[in-house]
Fold each of these.
Amino acid sequence: MKNIHTVIFLFFFIILSVNASAQTIQSSSWSVNQSLAAYSLDKNNGERTMTIEVKFEKAFTKKPQIFLSVTQIDSDKESNVRYNVEAISISRDGFTIKVRTWADSKLFSISGYWTAFNP
């Protein structure tokens, strides 16, 4: 009888562990460029921003940590390359990527990857 309880306990523990680990990390790519409506990172001077809404395929059980990377930038060669990429409005269901440039910088496109995880 003790062995049956042990087997049942291990079965539920494994199932719960698999379910918990299945949602501890999610990732994908992101990109903004001139083909998007209201794209302004390549125009004018001063601070300009674009945002990208990210919805997780499956909600996390608690608010995740977000890691962002930039893998590609196409910019104007006549000015300095200035940019900032940050995750804002983070929740269990998703977050927003905010891409920003300023001064006379002109970004024609910028892209990268995001990873969301629970430590």
Amino acid sequence: MGIIIIVFLLLFFAAFIYLCYLLIRWVFKNKRRTQVFQALLVIGVVGISIHHFFFKDMHFIQSEVYSNLYLVEYLDKDYSVVEEAIKEKIKEHLKSEHKTGKPLSYSGENAIYFYELGGMTLGFIGDAGTGYFIDHEEDLGGFVSEELGMYTNYRLAEFYYDPCPQDASVYCGEINFFREGEHFRVDSLTNLDFLDKEPNNLPHQQTSTQEVVFPLHGLLDKEALATYYPEVLSEFNFNGKFHAKRIAWTNGNGAILSLLQHTDSNSDYFLYSHDQNFKVIDSFYIGEAMDFDNGKSVTIDYDVIQDTSISFNKVVFGAIIRNNEETIDTLAHETTTIQINKNGTLHYTISKNPKFYSLEVFDRDSGSDGIQLRDKPNGNIIQTLDTTGDGYIISIVSGENGWFRVLKIDSIDVGELEMPYGIAWVHHSEIGIRANRETSVFDSPKNGKQIGNVPMDGDLNIIDLEQDWVKIEYQNLTGWVDSKSLCGNPLTTCP
């Protein structure tokens, strides 16, 4: 389908060029038409020049979808003018009766964002630019993604605010200003009046010559990361960009919640809680999001649930065959719910959407040939897994005729493996699972009749999947079991 669209666009472009050629020939065949064309050309050039030099006043465009997003067109060359205009727009925004609207991905409601209008690139799969978000929602899935985080070089300012501690009827907050996408300085807003000094509630280090301020939120350098998010540096090298956003949280336990994003080739997300002195209380690794790469993409978003917990939704998209045509659809969906306790510690539970369920299984040593991965059911071998180590944990989704789609492969020895061809299939004879407890076997999923039991640690053959139910074979017994009773880790027990 994509090739057909490209061919159509090329033909359309060629036809347009040909029509322009015919029009130009027609104009220059007649002297009067030529004079009229030249006059119109001069008028056009003069009009464009006048508009460029006299009518390009900087102005703000509020997104029709995200009311807390403003795009700045015709940016003034003097950044101090831009900053003052942003301050006035913040005051105007807070005083106005604006609709809450949809939240931007990975952001809270108590924030206002300012970006320069720009970033559009030409081409069939070019970027739409920041102007896309004037009347379009962020598109986090599909072959071409559009999210505001793609345009950090156009970021001008981010304002985070809450009711003032001394007077809850007015707002106080901090503004992080950016130049060419890099964090430049922090300013503050108190009772709708800006202060000239740096915010008192930001931590700082005192040196003999100057005061160095590290923002808790915004784009972070290595020192700020080590100060406020120290655990991350033990897991990641300081490559790519680290950016933190505050999550609006008003349950009164005093904890400051921050979403930390590490962007390199993909994006890793962490949830942090800090006390009022900006000391780390607890942290949790949420997962990795990615644009389409090796046949799949992963999106992560979140919702605050009545100021008691935060729900993170992780969705895996990939290519599937439907009605003999390849299309993009959901492969797996899991939800991590994080409860924030009174002392700021984090407690989590993970649940999988039964409609889009991924099952973890272990490999079976099928001989010296290793585990064979194929490009389609019973297709060509594209990768062979060495079975001489401690083994693998393989995430699979529903398949066909005894073959299962491989979503992810984790080696017990070295961690997650890269699948160079993206889409891979494995035969059921090369994978297995065991019962984590004595569990019932039914003749059909969900509401079936019990036909037997399998013992704890029973080694089971996998025949089929239907949502969160697994069809297994154990000795002479074949039937369906609830996946919650099964474990795909070959070395340890599962919860």
Amino acid sequence: MPAAKRRRDNAEAPVKGSKAPTAKKSKVNGNISAPAPAPAPAPAPTPTPTPAARGRGRPRRADAVPSRRRGAPALIINTRPTEKLDIFVFGAGEFGELGLGNKKHEGKRPTNVKKPQLNHLLAAEKVGVECSPGGLGRETNWEGDDDDDDDDDDDAGLDPQESTPAEVDFSSLDQKPNFVQVAATNSASFALTDGGDVYGWGTFRGADGILGFTPDVQIQVKPVKVAGLEKITYLAPGSDHMLALDRDGKVFTWGSGGQSQLARKCVTRQGGPKASLNPLVCGRFTKARHAVKIAAGAYTGFYIDNRGKVWSWGLNNYSQTGHSDLAGKTNAVISIPTLVRAFREHTITDIDGGAHHSLACNSDGELFTFGRVDGHQVGLKEDAFTEENTVFDEAGKPRILKLPTVVPDIRASFVASSSDTSIAISPEGNGYSWGFSENFQTGQATRKDVEVPRLIESDDISGKQLVWAGVGGQYGITMGLPNIFWSFSVALNSSSASSSRPCRLPFIAKLPDVRNTAGSLPPRWLDLNPRDFLRLSGGSFLFFAHAFEHHGDILSSN
């Protein structure tokens, strides 16, 4: 059994069949519960149609329902990302989750990657599709390697179809949608379209095994449209539950809900024991107060409202929701979306959750962590734990950080977490990681726990501006802007060809960092002193002012 799995198994798992305590609709231990939905107003009387004004052609019926013209373009509410990014992976990779294929590349094996390594199969100049390892939504039958010519030293023994990124099979659909986001739970995957529809495949699991994908389908093999979701703008996955945010700021939940991670009833008279598999709104949302961002931990849910305040729910045995209620109690849950009062003086901009801990950052760049402590999940030194903010065990060791606490000496604009490991990205694009590292999932080339946030470094990400990160149980992923070189004046084979606007030179890559800041370009650009670039592409010669479109270090070549 992998070490990371053992760590999760040794954690205090939710008790099967335990009944969640009901949160009161009044202030409880400093937390404000979300108000119950107001009764629906009576329908307004239908006004008497007025005669249509007579004009040329046939009069239009006043009570006719306007419809979209045949052939009219579909409604677009989400924009597909256009910035191509380099993808860096690290961690165990024993189940193909790193997407490095099944063979060595440049002498590097596709498993046990100690430091961030560029995924050569998903480099920025090659990326054309997105896929999510796990529930792959495509055929992955493999009976082992039958190629006698393969070098056994180069073969990692992985299923080549599971370990190599490939497009999901959408042949079962009449028309392939335009996808803008993907998300995956432990056993299911989902994809969001530009029109706000959600497609999914796989299954949800509960305490007793497979729960199902829908009330009528146990395992969904091929992608299918998820009923009940329209005009969705973002998806957030937990271990076995999903959150979706729609254009009006409402949050939908579905999946396994045994630890109150759906913030609603999981069994109903009409839907029976599988009612939780139908997406439904989990609270009351209005124009005055609605969700603008969502996130999920393993058994928790979060949303940031339009005022920058955090609402959370789900399993709370380690105060991983940000509430100190019943911290340390096995059956502790927050059953409905509840305002986190610890953040009342802050404008939170990002939040994420792991198995038993969570982290967030505010508009000032402060990084907050809270939850389980014994595996360095919160990234704090021992002197940060006090009687006021911490629950100690019988031996006097810190066990639960029950209040969100600032992590010193680090600024963050993006956070990511899973299981017992976390990553934060600074506004400058530097990545920091900490926590459980048995399978190198911190990217720090160590199997020991990383106590406090440490800069993620490797040859492949040197000088890169990181913009995104994600953490799995035994691996991690970061994404960064590729190094793109630009020139204002180019001379090819000694023949001058000046340009008044920057032109892209994609054949230049991995240039050393010389930190040269001379020049006078606008803030968007960082420029270099005039210098010669010789024989970088065949017989080409480059002269005069050169610049990189880059938000961090300036890259150049002597």
